[in-house]
Amino acid sequence: MASTPAEYIQHHLQNLTYGKLPAGYERADGSVLDQATWTIAQTGLEARDMGFMAFHLDTLGWSLLMGAIFILLFRSAAKSATAGVPGKLQNFVEMCVEFVEGVVKDTFHGRNALIAPLALTIFVWVFLMNSLKWIPVDYIPGLASLLGLPAFKIVPTADPNGTFGLSLGVFILILFYSVKVKGFGGFSKELAFTPFNHWSLVPFNLFLEILGLLTKPLSLALRLFGNMYAGEVVFILIALLPFYVQWTLNVPWAIFHILVIPLQAFIFMVLTVVYLSSAHEEHH
Amino acid sequence: MNINLTLFGQTLAFAIFVWFCMKLVWPPITAAMAARQKKIAEGLDAAGRAQQDLKLAQDKVSNTLRETKEQAAQIIEQANKHANAIIEEAKQQARTEGERLVAGARAEIEQEVNRARDQLRSQVAALAVAGAEKILESQVDAKVHNELVEKLASQL
C-alpha cells in the first residue's frame, strides 16, 4: 500500500496494464530488458512508457464481466419470455426494454432494427459499469494487491479507454449510417454544403461539419468519463479520512450516485440515439 | 489515463454485446410483450362484450318478468271475472229452477184441486140424484135428467 495521500490517490487511479516494453528499458526495480517484452506494468511510469501497445486488464475484465452479466440476465429472461404472467426477472427486463423503446420511439423516427437493442445494451451495460462505483474504493483493489497485482481500478467508465471505446463504436455507426442512408456523395455533399450552401464556402463548411462530427464521440466519451472519474476521485479522497468520519461524506456521496449513475447511462444512451437519428436524416 | 489498445478491445466487446442483444435478447422479449399486449386487449374486449351481454340479458330478464307479471294479473282478473260469471249463472239457474219447481207445485196443486172438484162434482151429482129420488120417491131417470144434473153439478 502507498504511504502518502498523493501516492494513495495515484495508485487508485492507475490501471492494471499489460503491455510491451521496448528492449533496453530500465524497469522500476532496476533490471534492464534485453529485448522487447510483454509484461504487467509495475508502476505508472512503466504503464505510460508502454505507449499504445498495452491493455488495461482491469478495465477490459470488469467491462466484459458487466457485459456478460447483462447478456446472461437478459438472455435468460428472453429465453423464458412468456406472453402470460411474467416472472420477476421478466418483469424487470421488460421494464428496461419498454423504457428504452419509449426513448427510442420518441427520438428516432426512422426504421432500424439495430437502434433499440443498441440503446438497451448501452444503457444497461454503462449502468452496470458505472454501478461498480458503489463498491467501496479499497475493497477490490485491496484484494488485488493481496494477490500481488501492482494496481487495480474497477470502474471501466472511469477509464477513458472504456468510454472512448464505446463512443468509437457509436462513431463508426454514425459514419456507416450516414453513408448508407445518404450515399457517399450525399454525405460528402452534406459535409461540404451545410450550413452555407455556396461553393466558395466549401472549405469552411467542411471544417465546421467535420469538427461537429468529431465532437459527437468526443463529447459522449468525455462526459461519461469526466463524471465517473471525478466521482471516483472524490470517493478516494473521502477514503483518506479517518475511518470513523468517512461515512458522513461517503454515504451522501454514494446516495448522490444513485442519481448520477443511471443518469449518465441514460445520457449516453439518449445522445447515441440522437446522433444516429441525425445520421439517418437528410439535412437541408 | 493512457489511451491504448484497451480502446479497441472495448469497441469489439461493445459490438459483440450489441449484436448479441439484437439477435437473441430484443426479439423474444418484444415478441412476448406484443403477444401479451394483444392478449390483454382481447381480454378487455371480451370483458366488454360480456358486460354488454350481461346487460342485455338483465334487460331481457326484467322485461320477461314484467310481462309475466302482467300476464299473471290478467289471468287472475279473468279468473275472477269467470268465477263471478259462474256464480251469477248458478244463482240465475237456481232462481229459475226454484221458480220452475214452485210453478210445477202450483200446477199440481191446481190439478189436485180440480180433480177433487171434479170428484166432488160427480159425487154431488150422484148425491143430488139420490136426494131427488128420495124426495120424489120415484126413480129419476138418470138419462132423462142427465142434462139437468150436469147443469147443477157444473154450478158447484
Regions of chain A with pLDDT < 50 over 5+ consecutive residues?
none
SS-derived structural category of chain B: mainly alpha
Strand content of chain A: under 5%
Oligomer designation? heterodimer
Major beta sheet of chain B, specifics? Answer: none
User: Distance between the terminal alpha carbons of chain B, to the nearest Å?
Assistant: 170 Å
Number of helices of chain A: 9
Determine Rg of chain B (CA atoms, Å): 61 Å
In spatial order, strands of the major sheet of chain A run 2-1-3
Q: What is the distance, rounded to the nearest whole angstrom, between the alpha carbons of the first and last residues of chain A?
A: 59 Å
Structural class estimated from helices and strands of chain A: mainly alpha
The count of DSSP E runs of length 2 or more, i.e. the number of strands of chain A, is: 3
Largest sheet of chain A: 3 strands, antiparallel
**Quick check: average pLDDT of chain A?**
90
Estimate the global geometry of chain B from the Cα principal axes.
Answer: rod-shaped
GO molecular function (chain A): hydrolase activity; proton-transporting ATP synthase activity, rotational mechanism
GO biological process, one term (chain A): proton motive force-driven plasma membrane ATP synthesis
Main location (chain A): membrane
Subcellular location (chain A): Cell membrane; Membrane
Give structural notes.
- The complex is a heterodimer of chains A (284) and B (156).
- Chain A is mainly α.
- Chain A has one domain.
- Chain A is 68% helix and 4% strand.
- Chain A contains 9 helices and 3 strands.
- Chain A has helices at residues 5-12, 44-49, 57-79, 88-107, 115-131, 139-146, 160-193, 202-239, 243-280, and strands at residues 17-21, 37-40, 54-56.
- In chain A, strands 2-1-3 form a 3-stranded antiparallel β-sheet.
- Chain A is globular, with a radius of gyration of 23 Å.
- In chain A, 36% of the residues are buried.
- Chain B is mainly α and 156 residues long.
- Chain B has a domain at 47-155.
- Helices cover 93% and strands 0% of the residues of chain B.
- Chain B has 2 helices and no strands.
- At the A-B interface, strand 3, helix 3, helix 4, helix 5 and helix 7 of A face helix 1 of B.
